[in-house]
Amino acid sequence: MSGLPETVDIEAAFARLRDHWSPRVVVQVNDQYVKVAKLLGELVWHRHTDEDELFYVVRGQLVIEYEADRSVTLGPGSIHVVPRGVLHNPVAREECWIVLVEPATTRHTGDVETPRTKSIADQLA
Amino acid sequence: MSGLPETVDIEAAFARLRDHWSPRVVVQVNDQYVKVAKLLGELVWHRHTDEDELFYVVRGQLVIEYEADRSVTLGPGSIHVVPRGVLHNPVAREECWIVLVEPATTRHTGDVETPRTKSIADQLA
């Protein structure tokens, strides 16, 4: 190890975020990326075939809609894992700040391509 | 999916913690465990040969000591990843609450066995 490992300040990471639904990688741990994102409105129904996705709400409120008109409502301090293969749709009726943990390979709109889809390169930029 | 995936409240998870240096698993995401722990004092110098370990400080202050008298000081909102193979020693001069992300296989004192070492079974109990 030459230099010391970096420390990321989460508030500063959120401060750098300009756009909604545009996750940014803050750090990698093993094969997972930790990302920050600001959400407002609705993303898109999608699933990640082989990848669990962890949501940790820092600010605001996030609804994860599931099939059969079911949903969970997450507030600050809530940790929720959407299991691999499960169809879901994140909805933020007010601005919501989240931390995500998911494999480095995960595409944030899963198997669905939308105008909002950000590549992994976008998320690292 | 039969029932909806569980939601964990992080404050409640910390409230259930009684002992220092006794991490508890709150959720699994892919091959990683997310754990909460309360720290006070010094753990032990150790390394995790093949596993990165993420520290996220929720409350208090944590110093990660590295070799050659180097260290980083983490406050609330700091995210820091100790890379695999790197010798380190966590020191909390005041009580510190942290979230850890590390592989499900990681032993919290690495390759060092101490009276404080908690098994993975302990951490899941």
What keywords describe this structure?
homodimer; 125 residues; mainly beta; Jelly Rolls; seven-stranded antiparallel sheet; 2 helices
Largest interface pair: A-B, 37 and 37 residues
CATH architecture of chain A: Sandwich
By CATH, the superfamily of chain A comes out as Jelly Rolls
Spell the H/E element sequence of chain A.
EHEEEEEEEH
Subunit arrangement of the protein: homodimer
Rg estimate of chain A, integer Å: 14 Å
Structural class of chain A: mainly beta
Q: Report the count of strand segments of chain A.
A: 8
Classify the helix fraction of chain A into a percent range: under 10%
Question: How would a textbook summarize the main sheet of chain A?
Answer: 7 strands, antiparallel
Q: N-to-C terminal Cα separation of chain A, in Å?
A: 24 Å
Q: Kindly state the mean pLDDT of chain A as a whole number?
A: 93
User: How much of the residues of chain A is beta strand, in percent?
Assistant: over 45%
Can you tell me the residue ranges of chain A where pLDDT is under 50 for at least 5 consecutive residues?
Answer: none
InterPro entries (chains A, B): Cupin_2, PKS_Associated_Protein, RmlC-like_jellyroll, RmlC_Cupin_sf
Organism (chains A, B): Aliidongia dinghuensis
Pfam families (chains A, B): Cupin_2
Protein name (chains A, B): Cupin type-2 domain-containing protein
Structural commentary:
2 copies of one chain form a homodimer. By secondary structure, the first copy, chain A, is mainly beta. Chain A has a single domain, classed as Jelly Rolls (Sandwich). Chain A contains 2 helices and 8 strands. Chain A has helices spanning 10-15, 120-124, and strands at 7-9, 24-29, 32-42, 53-59, 62-66, 70-74, 78-82, 88-103. Chains A, B: This is Cupin type-2 domain-containing protein.
